[in-house]
């Protein structure tokens, strides 16, 4: 069954019915009558064949859709279908109903502002960055996106979501095997698909301890908007950001780079589509354990160039650090061949927002202005890498941006 051929009304009816079920709803009955509507019959026959474990996607969760609004019980999949961005804060509220991530933000605000609000106003590593950029090529992203999109979906609760995470873990370990000092870890989550963290230590450990980490991130999961267990190749959202980071990491290490004065971490988050679940867990863990993060940059959707438009880099200006965002513009002007354009995404747009919550300066660059992003294909079976608007050249621009961000902030060790 080609999922994208179903009428939107049928999808809406399915979501509306399931969203009214209690949290402990059992599977749908096998005998349901929908008259002469083959689309509804097909949809519900598929849903009724799924196990009760699958239907937990329709269990209500505590969600927050705006910074100044209190969390409320809602259905994440229904919110996603409506295009509402949200944090799932169910696991992050204290006994008084307060978001513990925000509490850490208040506790760490003074130290973060003193140590991380200032970023370079000029570029200092042009020669070194150039040597890394000369190593960046399309072959890796092409092979990696073909493999990464071959899984039925990368939904964070599905079996194929776990399998895709294991593939990604093996790929990161393969790339980093050239340096025995690099560690690759799984950050475990209760839903099965773990986040992945690659840690590259600085040559000056004392300076690194003082300066804090440089983090670049992307999310590994994908989702189908009609029902999350259905096929969802997620080539752009966020397969593109994932392969962007893999190529940045590979090119850096192939060039002999080591950070000099800040440790560097590559994060591949689980469950972004579920309400930034993976990145919230990681950010909270870092805040609670006192791990310093100087700056975080997110890469989510980096491949799409809308037909009839010129390539640009969309610079997100909301729920980010203005100072780090200004630094990102400097990098684009100095190292890329296309201009930047400011754009806004809204609350809880991607994993950078989890770091903003805990007081860490974050930045987020995307494939275009929000209105020119790949909005019609994402979360469907059509989010593939085979159409004309999917650009590997654009992916490489973001690999260059990622590597430049890292080198200019973490240095080049000897």
Automatic annotation (TrEMBL):
InterPro entries assigned? M28_fam (IPR045175), Peptidase_M28 (IPR007484)
Name any Gene Ontology BP term: proteolysis
| Signal peptide stretch | 1-25
- The answer to keyword Zinc applying to this record is yes
Q: What are its cofactors?
A: Zn(2+)
Pfam families per UniProt:
Peptidase_M28 (PF04389)
Which GO molecular-function terms appear in the entry?
Answer: aminopeptidase activity; metal ion binding; metalloexopeptidase activity
What highest taxon heads this organism's lineage?
Eukaryota
Q: Which Gene3D superfamilies match?
A: Zn peptidases (3.40.630.10)
Q: What's the EC number here?
A: 3.4.-.-
The answer to whether UniProt assigns keyword Transit peptide to this entry is: no
Residue ranges annotated for the Peptidase M28 domain, each copy included:
196-389
Keywords (A to Z) from UniProt: Aminopeptidase, Hydrolase, Metal-binding, Protease, Signal, Zinc
Q: Which family does it belong to?
A: Belongs to the peptidase M28 family. M28E subfamily.
Protein name per UniProt: Peptide hydrolase
Native species:
Pseudomicrostroma glucosiphilum
């Amino acid at each position: 069954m080609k999922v994208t051929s179903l009428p939107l009304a049928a999808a809406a009816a399915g979501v509306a019915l399931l969203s009214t079920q209690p949290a402990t709803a059992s599977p749908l009955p096998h005998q349901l009558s929908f008259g002469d509507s083959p689309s509804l019959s097909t949809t519900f026959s598929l849903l009724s064949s799924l196990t009760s474990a699958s239907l937990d996607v329709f269990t209500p969760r505590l969600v927050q859709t705006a910074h100044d609004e209190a969390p409320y019980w809602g259905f994440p999949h229904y919110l996603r279908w409506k295009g509402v961005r949200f944090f799932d804060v169910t696991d992050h509220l204290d006994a008084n109903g307060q978001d513990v991530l925000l509490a850490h933000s208040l506790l760490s605000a003074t130290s973060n502002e003193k140590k991380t609000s200032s970023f370079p106003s000029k570029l200092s590593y042009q020669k070194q960055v150039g040597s890394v950029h000369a190593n960046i090529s399309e072959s890796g992203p092409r092979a990696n996106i073909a493999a990464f999109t071959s899984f039925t979906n990368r939904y964070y609760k599905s079996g194929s979501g776990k399998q895709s995470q294991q593939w990604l873990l093996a790929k990161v370990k393969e790339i980093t095997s050239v340096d025995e000092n690099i560690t690759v870890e799984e950050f475990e989550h209760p839903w099965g698909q773990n986040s992945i963290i690659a840690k590259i230590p600085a040559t000056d450990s004392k300076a690194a301890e003082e300066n804090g980490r440089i983090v670049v991130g992307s999310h590994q999961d994908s989702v189908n908007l009609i029902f999350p267990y259905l096929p969802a190749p997620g080539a752009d959202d966020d397969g593109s950001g994932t392969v962007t980071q893999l190529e940045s990491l590979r090119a850096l290490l192939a060039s002999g780079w080591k950070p000099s004065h800040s440790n560097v971490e590559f994060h591949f988050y689980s469950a972004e589509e579920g309400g930034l679940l993976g990145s919230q867990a990681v950010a909270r863990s870092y805040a609670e354990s006192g791990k310093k993060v100087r700056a975080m940059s997110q890469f989510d959707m980096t491949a799409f160039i809308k037909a009839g438009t010129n390539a640009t880099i969309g610079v997100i200006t909301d729920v980010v650090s203005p100072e780090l965002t200004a630094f990102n513009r400097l990098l684009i002007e100095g190292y890329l061949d296309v201009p930047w354009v400011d754009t806004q995404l809204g609350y809880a747009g991607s994993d950078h927002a989890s770091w903003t919550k805990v007081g860490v300066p974050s930045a987020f660059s995307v494939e275009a202005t929000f209105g020119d992003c790949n909005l019609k294909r994402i979360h469907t079976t059509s989010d593939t890498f085979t159409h004309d608007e999917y650009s590997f050249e654009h992916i490489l621009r973001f690999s260059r941006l990622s590597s430049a961000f890292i080198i200019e902030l973490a240095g080049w060790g000897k």
